Amino acid sequence: MDSPKKSARAAADLTDDLVVEILSRLPAKSICRFNEHRKKIPQSLSGFFYPSYRGTLEDLAKMLPDFVGIVGDEEPFSDPSLTFLAGYNSIIPKICCNGLLFCFCRKVSPGGEVDYSKVVCNPATEKWVVLPDSGDESISLAYHFGFDPTISPHFYVFQLIDADENYGYIGDMNIYSSETGAWSHKESGWADELQLVDRGGVFLNGMLHLLTNDFKILAVDTEGKKWRTFPLLEPMTVSCLCRGALAFIGQSQGRLYFINMRDYDSGEWILKYSISTAQIFGEKNLMFERDYALIAIHPECNMIFFVCRCEDMLISYDMDRGKVCVICSLIEHLCDRPFLPYLSYVPFLSDSLAAWG
């Protein structure tokens, strides 16, 4: 019979992949006994947060988060409405990055005074923090958010300043660091008269990446010291999947992806392969961002996600296998706004983040 010490040494020699494979074959009750170990196991995409209208006669502007899962009925948190954010009448999820949510929140005092806050929270652990004002809220162009626990236990919020309110050109930037608990102002290191594509940013390798409407990718680090510009016509580490007029950037498998979609009179569009809309959605002559929309790239494989308005469905497309999968119906989620921002959520189970204090 093997001694306990020898067995312990053998278990220690198991690779992470083998541990994950073993745990994936255990019953759920057995997994729960190893909760602390589960926190150390890399998590996969669980689903998408999105803002849901909950307006009432007393509060017409009320919004709360909701969630659509892609891996079964069990959600990795207790309540997608984030009710642990006590006191807020409205919570709008804006950006999700590696398990943390950046939200716009609003509360109304008994006297009718309205208070607006920026909140960062972890839905899995229910830890949260309210950010101080930057002082430039009135001239803010956009907010972006970055967190990567493999690089730092701290998160960062990037506030882009509007250089010209008539044209929406990118100006300077304020950067919030959870390490210092304060904002710092940075003069822009990019060229003048740049406008962003309104499809979010990507935080990768410790830098925020943004897409301009003239097909350049901008990057800045968390200290505002490194400013880079990548024209997409030059060789770069971005994987160009297709060509056309409607653009999207995302990250998968440690790489930055640029997706460019184009509608054709024939009803075809290009996304790495030439595929007809009839093959994916069952109909021809569909218009991008009217009848369907690309919402996300899977962070671990060559899979993309669409919302199909004609059938009110969430659909995945495996680019390697050419396989289409209907994940779920979105009828109960959509209301009259089918292309609400859907925020990819990968649970972050650790509650040791330095930012929580």
UniProtKB/TrEMBL annotation:
NCBIfam families on file: F_box_assoc_1
F-box protein At3g26010-like beta-propeller domain sequence ranges: 95-323
Name listed for the protein in its UniProt record: F-box protein At3g26010-like beta-propeller domain-containing protein
Domain of life: Eukaryota
SUPFAM superfamilies: F-box domain, Kelch motif
Coiled-coil ranges (or none): none
Pfam families tied to this protein: b-prop_At3g26010-like
PANTHER family, A to Z: F-BOX PROTEIN INTERACTION DOMAIN PROTEIN-RELATED (PTHR35546), OS05G0139200 PROTEIN (PTHR35546:SF105)
Phylogenetic placement of the source organism: Eukaryota, Viridiplantae, Streptophyta, Embryophyta, Tracheophyta
